[in-house]
Amino acid sequence: MRIGPFLCLVLSVFGFCQMAAQDLPIDTTDTGYRTELETLFLKRTAATKAVLSKIDNRQVRREVLESYTEHAGEFLELIQKGVFIRDKKYSGLLENILEKIKHANPDQHFDDMKLLIAASNNSNAYNIGNDFVVFNLPIIFDIVNEYELAFILSHEMAHQKLNHVLQSLVRSKEISNSDEVKSRTRAIARQKYNQGKQASELYKQIIYGSREESRKKEVQADSLGYIFFSKTYPDYRYQAVKTLEVLKNIDTPKDSLLLADYQEIFAKHQLTFKPEWIADGENHYSYQKDKSWNVDSLRTHPNCDQRIVFLKERFKINDSDVKDVSPATFQDLKKDSASEYIFALYFIEEYGESLYNTLLSLKKNPDDAFLKKMLHDNLLKISIARNNFTANKYVRTEDPEYSDSYNRFLRFVGNLRKSELNQIIETFKQP
pTM here? Predict the structure, then answer.
């Protein structure tokens, strides 16, 4: 799910009653929770706007308030859409960890901290300011134990304590309105030639400067977050390092769909999969033409290896501090998580994401009734969207940043003819 420009400011490191065989505890119809969350969010954003309205520089104040209002509006839409869920299993786990951190750090006054769980497609956690910390469901599935989750939470709580989100917003507007940037912008406008190139260079300097500031903030959040964490779990200090090791590779796909997987799933239901549906091509997506840009260098987070070295040196964490940690509790927590995640994505109308995860699960459980129903329902929604010329709203287009497996899946969905799509939908229709 694409959340839009709002997350550019975020500083971060996630009707089947008849399906009795599947345990789907996530309540996607909790309108009371949505209303409660919306009320709290509006109250806190109003208070923040009152603070921002006191910025001295009139132009900076106007731009900051405009941006903040836009970003807050985007987040409010997510609340109203039902992206944020309240679930006993996952919410209870996070609230329990938060209570432990609060108890171990009584001088920090964490009583206003609000934890949200999002049915999103990426493994991430982030602070949006106003004492809100969001966990996307996949990050709960991807980490190994309570301690890793606790350090991630401590890190995001540190971002909040350090007020990094609002600082970044205000700082970006101060830079764009600085005398130096304005002077250089006017000078570029007066140039007869190479205006575009000079403007690009100026923009890159601003972006790279912002990147450095972001890196500093991540290290600051690691440091303060470690203090919160180590007070809470003094015997498991090394788990902070282990968490960064996990985060280093958390975006690496853990499974994939190959041609053989599609063929096997289709053959199981007497359908023929056509290899041309996923045939590779040279022009499926447009690569960045300006090779002078180093895309990786624009990432918000500094390299995890550097953060690990810093944390170990700063707080004298030694390899001898490693303790065995049983993941048993989390193994129980993750039971049936794939089905819950698939349904949550379907509910918030992320039909492409839900379908992709359905196919991944069908590899392992080809006879699962719930998964077959989800394959049918997602394809039906995509078919309806095609007929309404709104398919791009629910299914992404190929991108070089996606894995080969995911781009292959997008080609598959995009290359299906209407008759072929209808045949698959009819085949998986429940009796």
Answer: 0.79
Same domain, residue pair 85 and 158: yes
| Structural domain for 113, as ranges | 4-238
Calculate Rg over the CA atoms of the chain.
24
Cα 126 from chain centroid (whole Å): 8
What's the CA gap between 13 and 258, in Å, rounded? 30
The Cα-based distances of 213 to 153, 167, 266, 383, 412 in angstroms read: 21, 10, 50, 45, 41
Q: Residue 420: is it exposed, middle or buried by C-beta count within 10 angstroms (0-12/13-18/19+)?
A: middle
Whether 201 maps to a domain, the answer reads yes
- In the chain, the amino acid numbered 242 is K
Q: What is the mean pLDDT of residues 266-276?
A: 90
How does strand 11-12 pair with strand 84-85?
Answer: unpaired
pLDDT surpassing 70 at residue 47: yes
The per-residue DSSP string of 55-93 comes to: -SSHHHHHHHHHHHHHHHHHHHHHHHHT-EE--HHHHHH
Token pair of 398, please?
């190929």
Report pLDDT for 290: 41
Say which residues have a Cβ less than 8 Å from residue 329's Cβ, sequence separation at least 6. 145, 146
Average pLDDT of the chain, as a whole number: 81
Q: How many Å apart are CA 22 and CA 4, to the nearest integer?
A: 33
Q: Calculate mean pLDDT across residues 229-233.
A: 96
CA separation for the pair 352, 362 (Å, rounded): 15
Backbone conformation region of residue 123, classed left if phi is above 0, alpha if psi is from -120 to 50, else beta: beta
Whether 202 and 271 share a structural domain: no
Confidence of residue 196 (pLDDT cuts 50, 70, 90): low
pLDDT at 222: 95
